[in-house]
Amino acid sequence: MDALVNDGTFGVIERRKIDTVLAEQDFARSDRAAPKAALLSTLGKVLGIKYIIAGSITRFGSEEKSYGAGAAKYALGPIGALGFKKAKTEVDLTGRLIDTTTGEIVVSVKGAGVSKKGGGVTVGGFGGGGGAGGGVQTGDYKASAIGEAQEKACQALVEALLSKASAMADAARGSQS
User: What's the pLDDT tens digit per position in 64-78?
Assistant: First the structure.
């Protein structure tokens, strides 16, 4: 939403907070508010909208591959087994720009984001291969990887949407000439 607002191509309306806006306008017109507030609330009209952006998450997940070296267990003596992990977190999004007057989908775009955070080295079996183990991953670290992938996917989606919307506007201007 921030990227759409800051770009300025679209006027963005906070539909989730519309009840709050309407309640404030109603309050301003009540006898509990100052007379100036009532005047301001009659000037404030909630804007209608031409397009709705709707979308879906088409991929949201992580995969982790572990590479262990059984021979390293013996080479490292009392430390135990040494392993490596590679992590990849992916988020794919699809967005559609829908004309509210016709219901027609006028633009459809995709955005993908990948994070490779979360891999690392693990050492297990302290004391000769028993049950103890340690690693560099935590729950917070995994969350930041999904957050990074999600942010990249959103940025790609907005860039694609703005590009197509710009081309659509250019085509509309060309047909009016």
Answer: 887 765 544 445 555
Q: Are residues 97 and 168 in the same domain?
A: yes
107 & 142 share domain: yes
Domain extent at residue 36: 1-49
Q: Are residues 97 and 87 in the same domain?
A: yes
- Its pTM stands at 0.61
Together in a domain, 89 and 140:
yes
How many CA atoms within 13 Å lie on the side-chain side of 24?
12
